[in-house]
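Can't paste images in this forum, so I'm doing it all in text. The chain is below; anyone willing to post the predicted structure tokens underneath?
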Amino acid sequence: MKEKETKEIQKIIKSLKRSYQFANKNKKYLFFFLISSIIYSALSIALPILYARQILYLTSEIWVQLVLITIGILLLEVMRNLNRYLNNYFVDKFFFAVSKNITLEVAKETLKINTKTMNQNSSGLFIERITNDTDVLADIFVSIIDYSTEFISCLGIYISMFFLDIKIFLLYGVFLITIYISNRYASKKLQEKRKMSKKTREKISGFITELVRGSKDIKILNSEKSFLKKTDSLTEEYNQTNYTFDRTSAKYRLINESIRDILDFLIILIGIYSIMKGNLVVGTLLIVLSYRENILEMNQSIERFLDCIKRYSLSAERIFDIIDGTTFPKEKFGTKHLEKMDGNIEFQNVSFSYLEDQSVLEDVSFKIQPNETVSFVGKSGAGKSTIFNLISGLYFPTKGTIKMDQIDMTLLDKDSIRGNVSVISQSPYIFNMSIKDNFKIIKEDVTDEEIVDACKLACLHDFILTLKDGYNTIVGEGGVTLSGGERQRLAIARALVQKTEVILFDEATSALDNETERQIQESILNLQGKYTVLIIAHRLSTVIHSNRIILIDHGKVIDIGTHEELLKRSPLYQNLYELELKNKKEI
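Text version of the structure:
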């Protein structure tokens, strides 16, 4: 055996051991399934013999034996049907338990993948692995038992041919070897095509996800034709890959079927010759013919088993790539736990780049005191949102240090950072569920009273009461049934129920009308002195009441001061303020 094949087998065995652990307390059902499969195989071996005898007694007009054997067949069929029912029960209990455990594990590990990697890959790639590859892993043990018991049954039948007719036994042997060689050659050809099919399916799944989620913008941009053209192109690529796979598979299936037809022809010829010579009776030939499909299934069992292992190996590689973080790196946090932050944040000479040689922040330093309200202003692309990305732990500095309550952020565990920091983004994602469930999904123990209080603070409660189903209203995917301002206010309320010590408003009022913006500003003012509040805003009217304003330009801190102080001494801030006043006059 080649070293490469040995390593591949070792890899599969290791993956099987890991997959088996997902069964947890449901491993007993796999054992019950094994026992019932053995019983089912024994019944499947016995019944063809009885059928052949039944035909023999019928043609020989031996009525008593015919009735007895018919009753025996009925009893065995009932037993087999009952066994099949139990078999399915054990399979379902085992499969669904393992599938659930694997799906949850992959989903959990997917959420750990770092932001950069998630942004570089389509969502379809992960959806495909979570929804399809997990089932392949869950099914592998049932399939192994199925194919193994099937093979043993077929092998037992084949060995019995030796005692019935040596010539037919040898003939079967020659054809079994021929079919096996043909199947092994076909399997190698099909494996690469299967990999290509998986990749093209991921591509089209990702694009269709974008098409569905972005349908509104596609319509507004009048881009249906270009998206349908791209869909057509990807579908054609996927179909062509599958077509090639199907044609290759059909070609080898034709070869195998032709070999089987030739085998049938030769067996009947040899059988007739043996009967004419008196070396074989008609009843024995009937038994040989009744077992013909079972014997040929032995090769099919081997091939289905090997094909199943290959599909498993491919899916296991894709699943464990996510779980192990080999292809998709995970977020890395420290181990120090901070139960509740005071809200002290400090940047010490922080630099950051999303891409090499493209600096976004350069040598940024500032301090934020607990319960202080601080705003970040500057032109678009200045680096303001990047600062928030760093504070929320989506990224970590390329250089320099960020401290939270005097502790280096890289030493803190995930819950210490994200359990103390809430972010209200410019484009919040609203989950396709009820308004109430949008709160409960992020905080299971939140009370109805807390939800209502948060919605009142976010100026959303009165609007919700106008809806037919109130807080039980389904908002659609991405909150499509809500206006931009309503989605923003729901996101604000959703963040408020988390009651974190640090609240980040990243252009949180950008989608609101002037009146609602004023109400939200009042809400933010209500938070001052109780939470550490950080605000990014293009509208300077949102930030003028902040304790301090940090002016950012080209990734650097240009100045820090109050609204009045910056108006007096900062030309850049003066220009931003004058531009806003001009825009208001034009409106």
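Residues 10-187+282-324 form a domain with the ABC transporter transmembrane region fold fold (CATH 1.20.1560.10). DSSP finds 19 helices and ten strands in the chain.
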